[in-house]
Amino acid sequence: MKAIKIFVVDDDPLQLEMITDHLGQFKNYICKTFYKGETMLASLGEKPDIIVLDYNLSSADKDAKKSIDILKAVKSADERIEVIIYSRQDNVEVAMTCMRFGAFDYVVKNPTAFYRMENIIHKIIKQYELVADAERYKRMLSLIGYVILAGAVLAVIAKLSGLDDVFNILDH
Question: CB of 157 within 8 A of CB of 167?
Fold first, then answer.
């Protein structure tokens, strides 16, 4: 299994450390931390698989972009990157707004948040695996279709050129 690159964005250093410590127990997770959404956006070229994004990024820097704007920018750059919004707000409307703009899920900061986040990340990985399997299956079906088409074309050419008698001899 390939390593999963996770960007964690939070302006609270303690939260960053706690999340990365928790996720760091999984050997195939590579976590990179950011204090600002803008800095993370500048690093999207590193192709993260998942982004954990704090909902309130302007608590330390009042000029920081809002998380919804960061979410929109991530989805605009690469819609395949899944974003988990992480927030102290236990508000359904806020969660729905995040989901409307492309968040995979919304996690409320509480005692079970890290385990919930862990489960969501496992779901995202499973989804990525299913998409990869579907792509492989699609390529395999295309290849089989081309082989069948090539066989049919060869049979027609053989029939038109009189070579079909050769095949009849081989059958006897």
Answer: no
- Whether residues 166 and 103 fall in one domain: no
- Give residue-wise pLDDT tens across range 2-48: 899 999 999 889 999 999 999 988 889 999 999 999 999 999 999 99
Pairing of strands 29-34, 50-54: unpaired
- Same domain? For 95 and 158 the reply is no
Residue 9 phi/psi, 5-degree rounding, is: -120, 115
* Number of domains comprising the chain: 2
Distance between CA atoms of residues 132 and 136, nearest Å:
6
pLDDT tens column, 76-117: 999 999 999 999 888 899 999 999 999 999 999 998 999 999
* Distance of alpha carbon 29 from alpha carbon 11, whole angstroms: 21
Say what the pTM is: 0.78
Using the Cα atoms of residue 13, residue 121, residue 47 and residue 75 in order, give the sign of their dihedral. negative
Task: Please give the residue range of the domain that contains residue 159.
Answer: 138-171
> Is-contact 4 32, C-beta < 8 A?
no
